[in-house]
Amino acid sequence: MTMRNKAKKSPVALAVLALLFEEPMHPYRMWQLIKERSKDEVVNVRYRNTLYQTIDRLVRDELISKKETRKEDNRPEQTLYQLTGRGRETALSWMRQMLAEPADEFPEFPVALAYLPMLSVEEVITLLGKRLEKLDAEKIRIEKQITPVQDKIPRLFLLEMEFILAKLQSEIKWVRALLDDLNEGTIYWDEAWLNSILEQFKNKP
User: Fold this and answer.
1) Which of 3, 65, 181, 188 is 20 to 30 A from 30 via CA?
2) Dihedral of CA 114/120/121/124: which sign?
3) What is the pTM of this model?
4) What region, left, alpha or beta, does residue 190 occupy, with left being phi > 0 and alpha being psi -120 to 50 degrees?
5) Which of 65, 100, 135 represents a domain boundary (last residue)?
6) Full domain range(s) for residue 33
7) Do residues 12 and 54 touch, judged by C-beta distance below 8 A?
8) pLDDT of 59-107, one tens digit each?
9) How many domains does the chain have?
10) Distance of alpha carbon 89 from alpha carbon 84, whole angstroms
11) Residue 19 maps to which CATH number?
């Protein structure tokens, strides 16, 4: 198995490679830029150690390499990393795959929906109401980030935020419709109904 085949694709890994497309830089500068550019909305660098672990892995996979180590004043040494030829090729390959092919992702919410009858209708209504409140709050937060800069930053650099907002708006609309159906009784279950459905399936060949 070649080193290229072993390279593990991840959002954080792609972010590192993308930053090194610009210029060599040290890990803390990468972390700063991800935060400053709001890319942490789509790349999970909440814990800086995740970034450092990813960098170590990219070095092992020969996608990036150490360029030099600097020491300024009384600050700790800073290692600058640079993109390798293999790293450039891999980053472009990952980009093409991520854009063209929907990923096999298994988010939690659809799993909970698949086993909804474990809870009562009344509890589900309460829980979905809480989810809707949080979704609305998140939508407002994203809108507040986008609105002030829409006329200042080219749309190219806001596309991921637009996508997040569109997904939020779509989920909010869907959850509201589901809540309406639950409140109106269009979708309903109780133990007797579930047992009757179970019996129907048991009797089928």
Assistant:
1) 3
2) negative
3) 0.84
4) beta
5) 100
6) 3-100
7) yes
8) 999 999 999 987 766 677 889 999 999 999 999 999 999 999 998 888 9
9) 2
10) 9
11) 1.10.10.10
